[in-house]
Design a protein that fits this description.
Blueprint lengths: L2 H8 L12 H22 L5 H20 L7 H30 L13 H12 L3 H12 L4 H8 L3 H24 L1
Length: 186
């Protein structure tokens, strides 16, 4: 019995693959159909929102497809996807921690930055202001708060001292705080 026939009988969504589909396509479709809901449930239990969990599962499947298309042999695609969604969830938590750390440093009046699952527009506003900073300040903030590097590591990457990195970050945060406070008062 063909996979499409079994899927129709069980009420699952059927993804018809074109006759030109390769093994990577077939493996990814199979993993999504057989384990997609379980992957979603697993990543939701890691503390992500529904939207974040859907995105993580989709990203893991896309990464699996890219790996398979590039010729990498993956013995257990299901386990590979579980590991991938777990890592994506941890990345999301690290991003949330960095945003909270950055927002704590900004402390715009009484207003605080939202939870990572909160308003995307607030996060975009902060990072939009970061993009307007002088190059060195922008580099320091991205390395410190997006890449989660220590100031010592930031210094190594940029060829400056850790103290200089802290100084650039302090100046940058003061500029962002001032700009966002001024924009909020309008």
């Amino acid at each position: 019995m063909a996979i499409a026939t079994v899927a129709r009988m069980t009420g699952l969504e059927v993804i018809e693959l074109p006759s030109t589909a390769n093994d990577a396509d077939r493996i990814v479709v199979d993993v999504e159909q057989r384990y997609g809901q379980a992957l979603f449930g697993f990543v939701r239990r890691q503390g992500l929102t529904d939207e974040q969990a859907r995105d993580a599962v989709q990203e893991a499947l896309l990464r699996l497809w890219h790996e398979l298309r590039s010729g990498v042999s993956i013995d257990n695609p299901r386990a590979w996807c579980y590991r991938a969604v777990y890592r994506l969830a941890m990345d999301q938590h690290r991003l949330g921690r960095r945003l909270r750390l950055l927002s704590g440093r900004l402390d715009i009046g009484r207003r605080t930055m939202p939870d990572p699952a909160g308003s995307v527009s607030d996060r975009l506003a902060v990072w939009s202001e970061v993009d307007k900073l002088p190059v060195r300040q922008r580099q320091v903030l991205y390395l410190r708060y997006r890449s989660d590097l220590s100031f010592e590591e930031v210094g190594e990457v940029l060829g400056i001292t850790a103290s200089a990195g802290r100084s650039h970050a302090t100046q940058a945060l003061a500029t962002i705080r001032r700009r966002l406070t001024t924009a909020e008062e309008r």
